[in-house]
Amino acid sequence: MDWHEGSAAPRALKRGDLVVEQIKRWITERNLRPGARLPRELDLLEHFGVSRGSMREALKALEVQGLIRLSTGPGGGATMEAVSLDRTFQFLQNYLFFQDIDVRDIYAVRRLVEPALAAEAVPHLSSEDFAAMDRTIDCCEPIAGASCLMHQRTEDLHFHDILADACPNPFLRFHCKLINALLQTMVVGSVHASPEAYQQLGQAAVRYHRRILAAARRQDAALVSRLMLAHIVDTERHLDAVQAALRSRLLLDSEMKRQRRRPRHDEG
Questions:
Q1: CATH code, domain carrying 52
Q2: What is the DSSP letter of 124?
Q3: Residue 8 falls inside a structural domain
Q4: pLDDT tens across 104-158, in order?
Q5: Which residues form the HTH gntR-type domain (predicted)?
């Protein structure tokens, strides 16, 4: 292969990285799904013809990527895992740590995808979903106090997560839940913003959530989509009022131990 002047040659893969690629091809060929057990270590060594050190390095790399779970002791070994949203979000936030983005960039994408997701979710919302959305609205009623504001923000985004979980389109669901996670961990407000500005943000969210929920109960997907767009535009305006900005940081493993919600569709 000819390389253009100034371009770098591809990095030579380490032995462990090559084994990772071999195992991934092997998993793909067999279409292994979450819960499937990989062969014992001795069988893997024999099949791939590598040293114990290279195999253990490869398996650890696959575990870090979220593809397998390693366990020790009798009956231990490697088990296939569905890569979690938390793990995917961690990689994304690590990427965004080095990018120059702001709240407007996130909301530009949110305006495009979330109204479509909300409309698709409407026919799939259950009575349990409606009850859960009602509870989040009750929790979002504005109350003074910084700790209450943080709890309200979490419940506000939980309302949107419930809609995302009900959406049958996995690609839309993925994007909206990642946006919600970004907003949860990266958006901070100015210490100089007035309590009244935060109160108005919370009050506006509650008003829109009540209208969205009422339209969803009537199975009016078109209205839900329009209300969601108006809600996002209005929320961005309120974030301007509280001088919200992104806090660029790396996400820690200890911060990914959030409570798991009921899986939907292909997430189970």
A1: 1.10.10.10
A2: G
A3: no
A4: 899 999 999 999 999 999 999 999 999 999 999 988 776 544 456 667 778 889 9
A5: 13-83
